[in-house]
Amino acid sequence: MNKKEQILNATLKLIVQKGIESTPMSEIAKAADTGMGAIYNYFPNKEALVSELYFHLKTKESAIIAYGYDSSLSVKQRFIYLWKKMISYFLAEPLDFMFLEQFYYSPSIDPVAKHNGSLYLKDLDQVYLDGQAQQIMKEGDIKEWIGFTSGSLVSLVKLHHSNYISLKEETINNYIQAAWDAIKS
Questions:
Q1: Is-contact 127 75, C-beta < 8 A?
Q2: 184 three-state secondary structure
Q3: Alpha-carbon gap, residue 168 to 156, rounded angstroms
Q4: Which of 34, 52, 56, 170 has its CB 3.0 to 4.6 Å from that of 38, i.e. a possible disulfide?
Q5: pLDDT of 127-160, one tens digit each?
Q6: DSSP letter at 137?
Q7: Which pTM does this prediction carry?
Q8: What is d(CA 110, CA 107) in angstroms, rounded to the nearest whole number?
């Protein structure tokens, strides 16, 4: 692992543990086993470091979710595939999931960065657009419908990571079906 990767990895772990606002650069340097100068060689400030980590994870997430994706499947099949892949990623990579959640809901993060991160999942947007065009999904703003869908499915991942529930494949399939039922026309 190179120095930049060490810094990003240390940042990920500390932010998940302490929060974005409560993680100073000095602690990141210590956890990455490097000096402050090395951090500033790669990142001009904490905001740039946190944003780069966010985009690094969004790139990883979109690659994992898009792997094996077939855009010729039906809208429902694509919906199920993408949500199942996303949930699987979030379950397999809890630190990534917890960081992405903190980043997205932090009031101190630039809304433009949040919006740009959502652009990494164009396939998901297209499923909702295609569903509306085919009149098999409810009309309305697709970002709102994606938010509605993700709200319930991501809550399950949160409950799993907090050891409140234990998600099994059958349960995941049932809830993805319920999400589909909620938004279909």
A1: yes
A2: strand
A3: 11
A4: 34
A5: 999 999 999 999 999 989 998 998 899 999 999 9
A6: B
A7: 0.87
A8: 8
